[in-house]
Design brief:
The chain is an alpha/beta fold and 327 residues long. The protein has 2 domains: 208 residues, von Willebrand factor, type A domain (Rossmann fold, 3-Layer(aba) Sandwich), CATH 3.40.50; 79 residues, Immunoglobulin-like. 24% of the residues lie in helices and 26% in strands. The protein has 7 helices and 14 strands. The longest helix is centred in the middle third of the chain and has 15 residues.
Length: 327
């Protein structure tokens, strides 16, 4: 089925958007060549992270002894550790096709296809969602770059509907539904999957129509154990003669930072092709750390995670926490 319109999930979005619009935040022995087991075991917390040196370069040769994990300030014992160069990954590519992105769509098609050709290994999968005034699933999860290219070729400008039309109203007719798209990708496509999962969103970060709040979309990604990588890409000319852009970069930094990802900013010197190359390197330079939390309560609360690494100039990039299961 090519399209997943938000109208099919309107009830879900409306329920999720009501009171929860407020912020939700207030190893076997180490072996780099051993593939870790991802379980739905409620007593096992899996964290993916990357480490960079003082110059921003990726560090890929650390060992388990170089890491220390804390949950809510209490040190945890690492039970599984691996360097993730080849563990299968599922990637959801979300592409903003609202009016402000109209002149960028063709560039995005070419760069995204090249990325899929390079990054997808035999056991990897990817899916493609476009969003503007509504969200469409253009290609379901697949390992085929050709199918993904076909989906990319169906990227088209999405503008608000004008006037009356049949069927339920499922979005603000004046807006772009970035947060709804992230929520749907997390909750409907990735939540039930195991293994590594990432959402890559190409957008100027402006959301003016979602029923889901930014924080609720972050929570959905956290509950799905999914990292959000944001590609901040904007057409300055789309914002009129005075330029200035859409101002959504800060929102993207919050979404990516809370889930263990980061923001890539496209400009004249750093092209979209450059971004995808660096993203590919990062996805193949992750560490997987698992632990059984000392707090075994099934209370649904948010638990803060802190990962420390040896080397005073090294910096860890990882999600800030997770939600405990509930009875």
């Amino acid at each position: 089925m090519r399209k997943m319109c938000i109208s099919l999930l309107a009830a879900l979005l409306l329920v999720a958007a009501l009171p929860a619009q407020q912020s939700s935040n207030q190893a076997p022995n180490q072996a780099s060549d051993q593939t870790p087991t991802f379980k739905s075991n409620v007593n096992l917390v899996n964290v993916l992270c990357t480490v960079r040196n003082r110059n921003g370069g990726l560090i890929g040769n650390l060992e388990q002894r170089d890491f220390t994990v804390f949950e809510d300030g209490k040190q945890q014992q690492i039970t599984n550790f691996s360097r993730e160069t080849n563990l299968p990954i599922t990637i959801g590519l979300l592409v903003d096709v609202s009016e402000s992105q109209e002149r960028l769509i063709d560039i995005e098609k070419r760069a995204a296809h090249d990325f899929f050709v390079r990054v997808l290994h035999p056991k990897d999968e990817a899916f493609l969602i476009s969003f503007g005034a509504e969200a469409d699933l253009l290609q379901d999860s697949t390992n085929s770059p050709d199918l993904l290219l076909d989906g990319l070729n169906h990227l088209k400008l999405s503008v608000p509907s004008v006037g009356l039309h049949p069927g339920p109203v499922t979005q603000d007719p004046a807006g772009t539904i970035l947060y709804d798209a992230v929520y749907l990708a997390s909750n409907e496509k990735l939540k039930g999957d195991v293994g590594r999962k990432a959402i890559v969103v190409i957008t100027d970060g402006v959301d003016t129509g979602s029923k889901i709040s930014r924080d609720k979309s972050i929570e959905a990604a956290q509950r799905a154990d999914t990292i959000i990588y944001s590609i901040f890409y904007q057409d300055i000319a789309a914002y009129g003669p005075f330029g200035g852009g859409g101002g959504g970069e800060a929102e993207l930094r919050r979404m990516s930072g809370d889930t263990g990802g980061r923001v890539f900013k496209v400009d004249r010197r750093y092209t979209l092709e450059d971004v995808f190359k660096d993203l590919q390197d990062e996805l193949r330079s992750q560490y997987s750390i698992s632990y059984s939390p000392t707090n075994s309560q099934r209370d649904g609360t948010f638990r803060k995670i802190e990962i420390r690494v040896a080397g005073k100039d090294n910096k860890v990039q990882a999600r800030k926490g997770y939600y405990a299961p509930e009875n």
